[in-house]
Amino acid sequence: MTISKLLLDSRNQKLLAALLKTPRASVTDLARRVGLSAPATRERLVRLEEAGVIKGWRVELDPKALGYPISILVRVRPMPGQLPKIIKLAQSIPQVTECHRITGEDCFLMRLHLRSLDELDGLLDKFLVYGQTTTSILQSSPVPPRALPLPNQSTG
Q1: Which residue in 70, 48, 62 sits closest to 1, CA to CA?
Q2: What is the CATH number of domain 70-137?
Q3: Between 20 and 30 A from 146 (CA), which of 20, 21, 114, 153?
Q4: pLDDT of 151 over the 70 cut
Q5: pLDDT at site 109
Q6: Following CA atoms 33, 39, 43, 46 in sequence, which dihedral angle do they give, to the nearest 10 degrees?
Q7: Where do the domains of the chain lie?
Q8: Which of 77, 85, 54, 79 lies closest to 147, judged by CA?
Q9: CB-count exposure of residue 29 (10 Å: 0-12, 13-18, 19+)
Q10: Assigned CATH class of 3-50
Q11: Exposed, middle or buried: residue 54 (CB in 10 Å: 0-12, 13-18, 19+)?
């Protein structure tokens, strides 16, 4: 079944909506919410996962609770030939929680989490060997990461 057919199925939409609302719900609870048996619900979850609709069943940890109260966005404009080195460096630094290849003069946008601003210079110095950085400290997140609307849901 194609992804579009999976997403157009009203029971799958109900299942995804329930999962978004309560990600830790048991299969039995999800089945009750969508009006299916637990085995049928589990089968639908497997199909949605195999199709790539549901990805990365994971726990989201709060960086502040882990002792990283400062979030930083860093854009990197690499020197010629340095792209692979920047990727490898970003992958090796645990404080880099996201690294995106982007269009424009800068080639990378990264999110870093720091215990204190004293750590910033040392981390930036590692990237400055390979290119120019532009740094922004996150003040707040009025729109935190969230799910996209499901098909046939109003978008505002």
Answers
A1: 48
A2: 3.30.70.920
A3: 114
A4: yes
A5: 98
A6: 80
A7: 3-50, 70-137
A8: 54
A9: middle
A10: mainly alpha
A11: middle
Please determine whether the domains at 3-50 and 70-137 fall in the same fold group of CATH.
no
Burial of 15 (0-12, 13-18, 19+ CB in 10 A): buried
Nearest C-alpha neighbor of 53 from the set 5, 92, 97: 5
In whole angstroms, give the CA distance from residue 11 to residue 35.
8
State pLDDT tens for residues 8-18: 888 999 999 99
From residue 73, alpha-carbon distances to 65, 113, 130 in Å are: 19, 9, 17
Residue-wise pLDDT tens digits, 107-127: 999 999 999 999 999 999 999
pLDDT tier at 103, thresholds 50, 70, 90: very high
pLDDT interval class at 156 (50, 70, 90)? low
Angstrom distances, CA of residue 37 to CA of 31, 32, 102, 103, 113: 6, 7, 44, 47, 43
